[in-house]
Specification:
The chain is an alpha+beta fold. It has 1 helix and 3 strands, in the order βββα. It is elongated. The protein has a 3-stranded antiparallel sheet with strand order 1-2-3.
């Protein structure tokens, strides 16, 4: 789909560093991908505590139509092609 489409960024969107767990939810004709950042709980910090508790704080959710998901899977597959064992394939669940 992006072959004939020019990418523009007039408002210079910020890059979000999402190092936490991601989740994927399917809703009708769309897939929703949630990106998070792990952050320590402020109430979990304190004297005498040996472990700090953390939360996965939602940074953003992106809703993609099925075709965009297929494009994303293909692009990721191409980027990581060298690391993919021969004969393996990424498939979307229906």
């Amino acid at each position: 789909m992006a072959g004939d489409v020019r990418f523009v960024d007039p408002t210079r969107k910020e890059i979000q560093f999402a190092s936490g767990p991601c989740s994927v939810t399917r809703g009708g004709d769309f897939v929703i991908i949630t990106f998070t950042q792990v952050s320590p709980r402020i109430d979990g910090m304190g004297a005498g505590r040996s472990e700090t508790q953390s939360d996965a704080v939602v940074l953003c959710r992106i809703a993609l139509p099925q075709q965009a998901v297929a494009d994303l899977v293909r692009i990721i597959g191409e980027v990581y092609k060298a690391d993919t064992p021969a004969g393996s394939e990424i498939r979307l669940k229906k």
